[in-house]
Amino acid sequence: MSGLKGKVVIAQGGGPTVVINQSLVGAVLESRKFSEVTRVWGARHGVRGIVHQSFVDLSEATTHNLERVAQTPSSALGSTRDKPDAEYCQNILNVFKKHEVRYFFYIGGNDSSDTVRIVGEYAVKEGYELRAIHIPKTVDNDLPVNDHCPGYPSAARFVAGAFRGANSDNMALQGVYIAVIMGRHAGWLTAASALARQHDDDGPHLIYLPERQFSIDRYLADIERVYQRHGRCVIAISEGVWANRDGKGKEIPLAADLMRKAGRQPEVDAHGNVQLSGGALADELAATVQGGLGIKRVRADTFGYLQRSFPGVVSDVDAREAREVGEKAAHYACGQGVSGSVVIKRAGDYAARYELADVRQIAAQTRHMPDEFINAEGNNVTDAFRAYLRPLLGDGMPSLERLWAPAVTFNGG
Amino acid sequence: MSGLKGKVVIAQGGGPTVVINQSLVGAVLESRKFSEVTRVWGARHGVRGIVHQSFVDLSEATTHNLERVAQTPSSALGSTRDKPDAEYCQNILNVFKKHEVRYFFYIGGNDSSDTVRIVGEYAVKEGYELRAIHIPKTVDNDLPVNDHCPGYPSAARFVAGAFRGANSDNMALQGVYIAVIMGRHAGWLTAASALARQHDDDGPHLIYLPERQFSIDRYLADIERVYQRHGRCVIAISEGVWANRDGKGKEIPLAADLMRKAGRQPEVDAHGNVQLSGGALADELAATVQGGLGIKRVRADTFGYLQRSFPGVVSDVDAREAREVGEKAAHYACGQGVSGSVVIKRAGDYAARYELADVRQIAAQTRHMPDEFINAEGNNVTDAFRAYLRPLLGDGMPSLERLWAPAVTFNGG
């Protein structure tokens, strides 16, 4: 027991996932068990709810309600895209001091971990005892130190399942099918499409990731080769692919290039990220294939927000781990009295264990796919990646069956 | 028993669904039981496989393989968008005569039923005994006489589920969310989004269907009203909405208008249908809200091909009925020696029964949503529609839970 009496404040930041409420519920139920914890408050809409003192009292939520919320997609407390600056973080700390909040749990990605870091540092500077824990969450799977991030396995399951369906659709009607997948800086979610393949000639036949520079010429040559071989082609491409750099050497997302070309100014968020959603990239990539290769039936989808919020498409491994990182946050903060970021490590094939990392190792950094997960041509993933992802997808992925019936042959036609 | 000895040819046409293989397998397994049936052939890629004499021998498919194929999305035999003209239909009949095909089962939508009609009429004219059965299938749910069409309930389940997730995502991050749904001429699938709602303030708050003329002004006024009330707005809109008519009074899809405006010539298929897929409509509708109402966070998705091919998102009611219409085709043709289109009727709340209709009642016609299913303002559906669809979605739709915890109140702040 940490012996430090006070309230818990828990919040959810950034994009939702289908298992982020597992982490919320794990942390709430577990921290309610500690006698040090006087009250468990949930902040509405992330850090915004803290500075506006907009809280709900989770000490009074029923266990049954919480257990059902755990199985519900998206952030039950509400989320925010606010990126707190120094003053914002100071305000957070002031609210904590005012209400004797001694435990702060923030479930989120890179930016949320940075907020935990700053608020924690301010507390130390002011001599205010605060246990601040970052609980990992991101479908992008791009947090350092972690083997993988809660939310990613379920989103990966959605993407792999979607490509199983899209591949069989493409087998039926032929032509070229392109789908654009979430993942601004890292290709983890796009790469998950590779797990759709059951037969050697199953799509996706080509996978393009933001870890490699994109070239329209190579893209067209790749598709032409696959199309000549299979009479069809299925392609997975990350929304974050880039073909050019700006004057400062920064990669320009192809989607932003295309939006500007179409006369629209891409939206930029508080973190300086250009908005990538929308169908322009997929449409343009399809039109390029029609124009460049003369293939008539070219279809393109953008999986969009379904990837992170589709109810029922959940990896049981992911749900369990998301729950456990929430529980561990309570153990570390309320039980052991320490601060940091809960991380998932891989132990064997497959088991997970949890550790507490220094939040400075996590904050505001991006973990890209390592070279050994990407093929030499930069248009596919390796067996090593498939071995990495497979156990995370969980039980009961729908397995598709092909018809096995002999062709009818005629003598002399 | 019909007493007519000969082969069965079965084929799948048009867009795939997640249960179209149930119909295939139902017809194959059932027709293999009739002593009149000498062989069951599957045509590869619909009618195209017939005229090219590209068949597989389904008499030699194992029951186990077939049972697993039944649970696999998309058309296992392959499909086609070919729309046979008179000569094409004559060629089909010639192939049937050459190989003593006496039973023809074609699983498909409006156009497939028309092919069944024409080939059947030619056979009568030439005095060739042929039993031709149309087996209904379409996610568009637009075949006349049927209460609903196999494939639609599962696609509707996907759309309703997707909106449950999208609505909770939108509750977390606020703003406006727009999703464009399949359905060229009829709004059935878009309307299914209404079944996502569990609470009074759940989205979709607005639903736009091709059965009503679309107006950008009314669309913006509707959104503004919802946004002022809820601080957010979720919108379902059909890919087939139209705001204008051409010189001949024909409705011009808004998506085609937008593609032309962007300098692209929309693709037109063999049936004269303008291709509506792609993200341009969603992007434009989002930009219109940002520009017209000054709302910053506006996001748009186009559900695209996932709606009809996502593995595992299947209504058990739909799977059973798709199986049974396939079985009934064999009973009618091989057992009773009659031709026509198998139709689903509703008996009670809820049970289904199957009948055989004259294929001329089905062929090349579109069943729109009736007026009693659409509200007076033309921006939502009615309770009558919800009562119609609910039993079709099947068991086990994910039910989402909201957090129930009291707000923390402060005395004097």
Structure characterization notes:
2 copies of one chain form a homodimer. Chain A starts with 5 loop residues before the first strand and ends in a 24-residue tail after the last helix. In chain A, 58% of the residues are buried. Chain A is built from 13 helices and 13 strands. The first copy, chain A, is globular, with a radius of gyration of 23 Å. Chain A has 2 domains: 6-138 and 313-361, Rossmann fold (3-Layer(aba) Sandwich), CATH 3.40.50.450; 152-311 and 370-393, 3-Layer(aba) Sandwich (Rossmann fold), CATH 3.40.50. Chain A is 36% helix and 18% strand. The longest helix of chain A is centred in the middle third of the chain and has 22 residues, at 152-173. The mean pLDDT of chain A is 94. A 7-stranded mixed beta sheet of chain A has the order 3-2-1-4-5-12-13, with helices on both faces. Chain A has a 4-stranded parallel beta sheet with strand order 7-8-6-11. With 413 residues, chain A is α/β, with parallel strands linked by helices.
